[in-house]
Amino acid sequence: MEKNNIGELIMDHYEKYLGEFEDCLIFKGDENSSSIQLLQYDNVFKDCKTYATIGLSKYADIIKDVYEVVMVVDDAMEECATILANALFYIINNNVKLNRGTYIEGIKNINEEFGIKHNKTAVYFTETYAFPDEFSTINEEVKMCLAFFISEEECDYIRKFGCDKFEDYLEDNNVDIMNINRQ
Q1: For the chain, which terminus, N or C, has the lower number of CB atoms within 10 Å?
Q2: Could you tell me which of 71, 73, 2, 82 has the C-alpha nearest to residue 36?
């Protein structure tokens, strides 16, 4: 894939599966990092906002693969976008390998009120199982990753049993990961 066409391919992919974006949010990092861009989509899922990165794939050497990230939330939309961007900056600035089962703690350091109100402490990354199978890759080169918020108890569960058992638990119990107020 030619580097100058990757953005166009990503945008075409998003348009096909998410529709037209409503807004583009740009988050600036420190002087050592670039920016994180999140495209905002309304009602891809009923009463939710969907945020999708554009340009994260340019950090493939840092995150050890070519990824873009999508997050779907049903509440506190602006705060969610900011927290997601901060988690991605953390991944980039600390050379964290992004893959299924990666989670970034510290939500209360970014937005303490959000962390307390919604009982969430981390952003968790996994496969895009909430979307059609074809959404998971772009041109077989760029992988899509789903991000959602998890609680301290869920972090403990992952540490103790691993991401496979955690995701099996979510599926077996029909947990709505888009609901940020879930128990």
Answers
A1: C
A2: 82
- Is the per-residue pLDDT at 3 higher than 60? no
Helix/strand/coil for 71: strand
Residue 2 has pLDDT above 70, yes or no: no
Please write the tens of the pLDDT for every residue from 30-68: 766 678 999 999 989 998 999 999 988 888 888 878 889
Domain extent listing, the chain: 3-172
Alpha-carbon distance 57 to 34, whole Å? Answer: 13
Distance of CA 107 to the CA centre of its chain: 14
Q: Which pLDDT score, from 0 to 100, does residue 54 have?
A: 92
Q: Who contacts 118 (Cβ-Cβ below 8 Å, separation ≥6)? A: 75, 76, 149, 180, 181
Identify the H or E element spanning 24: strand 23-28
Q: Are 147 and 69 in contact (CB under 8 A)?
A: yes
Query: For residues 92 and 60, what is the distance between their CA atoms, to the nearest angstrom?
Result: 9
Q: Is the pTM of this model over 0.85?
A: yes
Is 4 a residue whose pLDDT tops 50? Answer: yes
Give the separation between CA 111 and CA 86, rounded to whole angstroms: 10
What residues contact residue 171 under an 8 Å CB cut-off, 6+ apart? none
